[in-house]
Design a protein that fits this description.
The chain is mainly α. It is built from 5 helices and no strands. Helix 1 runs antiparallel to helix 2. About 6% of the residues have low confidence.
Length: 194
């Protein structure tokens, strides 16, 4: 997922940079969606490959923690959604470039459509990864693996039960207080039913 998002970000970054260059050369203006797309793609290109490289090269790095990864991926998917929505809102062609007088306008129209498509694809990939990672982490935490949030995705076994789970005997002992003066255990929870 991260590799695909990085490649799509490179594509969006190149098209947004070309579109900004084209519109500035024509009328000294640029579209807001192309500036947001460029910024979002740059943020993604600077951080996601770095997260991959650090996770592969170092064990226990700060950027590899699931809590940090969820936070950053969550931020990025919001940025990609904003980029895709703003591009779709400004795309007056509706996806069809038709016949333009100049080939440069046809190219720009195609770039706008591609920016919109790749922004939505990046958003879908990141929100899917975010949702799956969050769900697996919550399940692992509920199964007793409380350290899941500070561990790396690479080294976390999401399906394993925690090793410090109490045994049945310890659970039974925990349900009783120390013996009263008569020497018999007093049940605390659940109360005994006749």
């Amino acid at each position: 997922t991260k590799g695909t998002v990085s490649v799509f970000s490179l594509i969006v970054m190149a098209m947004c940079a070309h579109l900004i260059s084209f519109t500035i050369s024509l009328d000294n203006i640029y579209f807001n969606f192309s500036a947001l797309g460029l910024a979002t793609a740059l943020l993604t290109m600077l951080t996601v490959p770095a997260m991959i490289i650090v996770d592969m090269s170092r064990k226990g790095a700060f950027t590899s923690m699931i809590a940090v990864e969820l936070g950053w991926i969550g931020f990025l998917w919001v940025m990609w959604l904003a980029t895709a929505a703003l591009t779709a809102d400004n795309n007056i062609t509706g996806g069809s470039c038709g016949r333009q007088l100049f080939s440069a306008f046809v190219t720009a129209c195609g770039e706008i459509n591609a920016i919109e498509a790749f922004a939505f694809l990046n958003w879908l990939a990141l929100v899917g990864y975010f949702a799956l990672l969050l769900a697996y982490s919550i399940v692992a935490n509920n199964n007793g693996n409380e350290g899941v949030w500070m561990s790396s995705v690479k080294y976390t076994d999401f399906g394993a039960a925690a090793t410090n789970q109490p045994t049945g005997e310890k659970i039974a002992q925990a349900n009783y207080q120390s013996p009263n003066t008569t020497g018999t255990p007093v049940p605390t929870y659940p109360p005994q039913q006749p």
